[in-house]
Amino acid sequence: MSKTALITGATAGFGEAIARRFVAEGWNVIVTGRRKDRLDQLVLELGGEARAIGICFDIRDEAATRAALGSLPLEFQAIDALINNAGLALGTGMADTCDLAEWKTMIDTNITGLVTITRLLLETLVARRGLVVNLASIAANWPYPGGNVYGASKAFVRQFSLGLRSDLSSKGIRVTSIEPGLSESEFTLVRTGGDQASYDRLYQGANPLQPEDIAETIYWVSSLPAHVNINSLEVMPVSQSWAPFQVHREQTA
Ligand code: 8X3
Asked: Residue 18: which of 233, 211, 221 has the closest Cα?
């Protein structure tokens, strides 16, 4: 009997690739997001409603999330894996000049939305000795200029993942924080407000991670023996590594 994964933010990038990878391995998937046309298209591509179902809602809205989960047909209610991929970065501005509304949108999506859907599905996941994979980021571990609230929200995701492990370790459920570095996807167009030139500059010659690389990693995490838990996993393209600390120097005459 096929297992079922619910993948949030599946209308692009990592989410779409994760859905394809899991379906290729015989899983059924529930794909979620805000863009119904894209969900419909993805469900079709994945083999239609025998294999995949799309539920369209805004993860920041608790009532909408409850209603969407409540609307799942019986065949898709036994969820074995929750892949918390929905999340976003908005802007790369410095903390003293960037937009408070953008900060709140990141917190509402990356933290509140993720916590809400996790809590709503946790009894099911525990009952099925399932798996939670949370998409954090290298920004959870390494601060960089312009990372401010985005990085802090991903640090929350990482620590929340470890906390879930701590609470649930006696119950046979697995929880993993995945922390990708430079990755090529629509994520960057969202972050730059649709600035294609910045997008192209960021990736030029960098051979960044691709959504399929992260999908492969997550599928690997899910396919390990049931007694093996990857707690956290940081993944970068080979081309990316660390830089020296910045040191601000006062001007001397
Ligand atoms: C995205 C990776 O390097 O832009 O989470 O923070 S990075």
From this structure: 211
Q: What share of the chain is helix, strand, coil (3-state, %, to 5)?
A: 45, 15, 40
Task: Give residue-wise pLDDT tens across range 23-41.
Answer: 999 999 999 999 999 999 9
pTM: 0.96
The residue ranges of the chain whose pLDDT is under 50 are none
Q: What angle do CA 154, 159, 165 make, to 5 degrees?
A: 130
- Tell me, which fold does domain 4-180+209-235 have in CATH? Rossmann fold (3.40.50)
Query: Using a 6 Å cutoff on CB, does residue 153 contact ligand 1?
Result: no
pLDDT for residue 17: 98
**Span 156-211, pLDDT tens digits:** 999 999 999 999 999 999 999 999 999 999 999 989 999 999 999 999 999 999 99
Instruction: Name the burial class of residue 140, with classes exposed (0-12), middle (13-18) and buried (19+) by CB atoms within 10 angstroms of its CB.
Output: buried
**What is the Å distance from ligand 1's center to 151 Cα?**
8
- Ligand 1 close to Cβ of residue 237 (< 6 A): no
Q: Can you point out the beta strands (E) in the chain? A: 4-7, 28-33, 52-56, 81-84, 131-135, 174-180, 232-235
Of 90, 106, 134, 138, best ligand 1 pocket probe by most atoms within 8 Å of the beta carbon: 138
Boundaries of every domain in the chain = 4-180+209-235
Instruction: Give the integer Cα–Cα distance in Å for 110 and 158.
Output: 11
